[in-house]
Amino acid sequence: MKIIIDAFGGDNAPLEIIKGAMLAVDEYDIDIILVGDEEKINKCCKDNNINLKHTEIVDAEDIITMHDDAKSVLKDKADSSMAVGFRLLNEGKGDAFVSAGNTGAVTVGATLITKRIKGVKRPAIASVMPSAKKPILLMDCGANAECRAEFLYQFGLMGSLYMQHILKYDNPKVALANNGEEETKGTPLVKEAYALMQNAPYNFVGNIEGRQIPFGDADVIVADGFTGNLILKTYEGVAKVLMNGIKEAFMKNIVSKLSYLGVKSGIDDMKKQFDYKEYGGAVLLGVKKPVVKAHGSADARTFKNAIKQAVWFLENSLIDEIEKALAE
């Protein structure tokens, strides 16, 4: 199994990306292709005493920044680490591609270089998120700001297959993000999608309000990319505020600090449960080969876990399952 890595994508590249890749080599027994400026990669490894194992470097001197236009991956920066990585994936030089770079550029590269699975209307960004009960999947998280009802219908199908084959959920519950549970609520898009999803070959359980999402009342939450991205970012922000508030409450004085010792294990468990670093990033569902968008601020552990998602994808032949479902 060979994973192609955009060594210069993300806020902490290349150091944390390289460190994360080496952690993944140790944990998942994989080979790595690091794409980026070879001289800078070698200098980074030398300066930080990193021993590259099971790793090939493919030179690409240009970089797509977070401020570049998404379509630059196709033309203006066709020699960037991200663009070269996508071409290597397309040529079969590796089995999956992982980048912490520009989300728009990753989406364009996945759609137009790697290309869609036959029958898929639009690929979508699918993020695994924590809930009070168990992990849930939110899609789309930003690939398609504007959607048609049939896109949302397919997001439900691909999300259901992901939860069945990757996280091993039995008959996952699929819900549509809305401002009310009633089927008469919502925008014309959501109402039309609801009507389609009622007859879907997956377990559609109706609408779900934002306040119910963290309770895990559904396993797959379907939304257009604009709404999904707002849900995702709000979710992450609220989790940080709560954890910081808990920490401050226990650090106020000596009595509260002593009290903390009695509940530390429980708080540590909760912190791990709601830590986005546990999954590392999001997968692009609907393209012909596994593409994972890691968090832009990924550190080594976060990036290692993003690579884990690519490994899961390959081990469970999810693309074959999506192709089969669409053919049926």
Task: Please explain how this structure is put together.
- The protein is α/β, with parallel strands linked by helices and 328 residues long.
- It contains ten helices and eleven strands.
Write the layout of secondary structure elements.
Elements (H helix, E strand, L loop, with lengths): L1 E5 L8 H14 L2 E6 L1 H10 L7 E5 L21 H10 L5 E4 L3 H13 L8 E6 L6 E4 L9 H17 L7 E5 L10 H10 L5 E6 L11 E3 L2 H26 L3 H20 L7 E5 L5 E4 L5 H16 L2 H10 L1
Parallel strand pairs: 1-2, 1-4, 2-3, 4-11, 6-9, 7-8, 7-9
Antiparallel strand pairs: 5-6, 5-10, 10-11
Helix pairs in contact: 1-9, 3-4, 5-6, 5-10
Report the sheet-strand fraction. 15-25%
Secondary-structure content class = alpha/beta
Average pLDDT, rounded to a whole number, is 92
Radius of gyration: 20 Å
* Helical stretch tally: 10
Strand runs, count: 11
Spans where pLDDT lies below 50 across 5 or more residues: none
Shape: globular
- Strand order of the main beta sheet, please? 3-2-1-4-11-10-5-6-9-7-8
Distance between the termini: 29 Å
Helices and strands, in N-to-C order? EHEHEHEHEEHEHEEHHEEHH
Helix content: 40-55%
What kind of sheet is the major sheet? 11 strands, mixed
